[in-house]
Amino acid sequence: MDLGLFSPPYAQAYVAGRRTLQEVIEWDLQIARWADEYGLDELFFAEHHTIGHEPNPAPDLMIAAAGRETQRLRLGAAAHLLPYHNPIALADRLMYLDHMTGGRYIAGFAPGSFPTDGQLFGVGQGNAKMMDEAIDIIMAIWTRTGPFRIEGEFWTVDMPAHSDQWNGPHLKPFQRPHPEVVMTGVQPTSPTFADAARRGFSPMSQQVGMAALLQQWETYSRTAVDSGHTPDRANWRIMRDVFVAETDEEARRLFLEGPAGRTWDELVLPTFRVVRDRGGKPYALGELLLDPGMTIDQLTLDWMVDHFFIVGSPDTVVEKITQFNEELGGIGALLSFTFDFSQDPEPYRRHLQLLGQEVGPRISTLGPRTAAPGPHAVASA
């Protein structure tokens, strides 16, 4: 099993005017340096355009910058929001990024979920259709040789034949036939997971409970088989916050009383507790985190630290990860959110050190994943 990180980035201090955007960026790069130094495997960056507390509109730029600061860390986007890009230009930039990182780049594709991002780009309700068309275009540019033409509903590609005069088109990915692609899902029967399975991409599960995770894998694996692919748990990434300190008590205190706890209590959990309507039935997204028999009122930070997150000493964290992996039947990578400890960075630096140097070697044999980045998420059957 691999261990990695996911940076939204959470930046409440930036929203409050106490941090500049440059400081937010530099903290992310510091995390990348520590992750690389301490032997963690992956770091993903999100994309949001109108969300002040998650202010990263350009994961490709962060990957390029982090690539120059690191040597072995794989760097991914979770995800490029395809409706907000010309897929021809994005395909070229990502191939270039794959070369810049020496094949350490992991692609991630998503339709975008924040309505204000969609409003900014004027895409209306067409995000899912635009994403599907963009993926078709990107994969064609990555894997096909011109000339070819694709006339879609939203974009048209007219790939010329190779010209001896201009010595191009010339770009192809560093990783052949293309970088690994991940798609993220939340709901138990996530349509994004089904889409990933049909295309042979890797699944990445958001922070949800065991029952939802098991359903997600069932959705993914069944669709993969039906589509002629062999589902591989080594390519299944799951997000679940991990925090390590010298003792269980210290880890719990640092999480609850520090930036991680404040972020969850003030920003994430309120969103999870909001009641929405689904098919005439009220529900809250946080219900996906709960144990059977619990109600949304019982979703508290204390409960999550004690029963959901993986928090504790190295021994405790190894034990919890081992149990987590066994209950799921095996996974490829465990990813946790990053938090802004920049005002007192030592606890976070030490957490990453313990995670990479003490926990990582002890859980590395739990999953079948290899160290080298692979071009495909799901092998063809």
TrEMBL record:
Keyword Flavoprotein: yes
Swiss-Prot/TrEMBL keywords: Flavoprotein, Monooxygenase, Oxidoreductase
Entry-linked Gene3D superfamilies: Luciferase-like domain
Database matches in SUPFAM superfamilies: Bacterial luciferase-like
Residue ranges constituting the Luciferase-like domain according to the UniProt record: 5-329
Pfam family, one: Bac_luciferase
Listed EC numbers: 1.-.-.-
GO function terms (MF aspect): oxidoreductase activity
KW Plastid (keyword) present: no
Family, similarity comment: Belongs to the bacterial luciferase oxidoreductase family.
Protein name: LLM class flavin-dependent oxidoreductase
Native source organism of the sequence: Mycolicibacterium nivoides
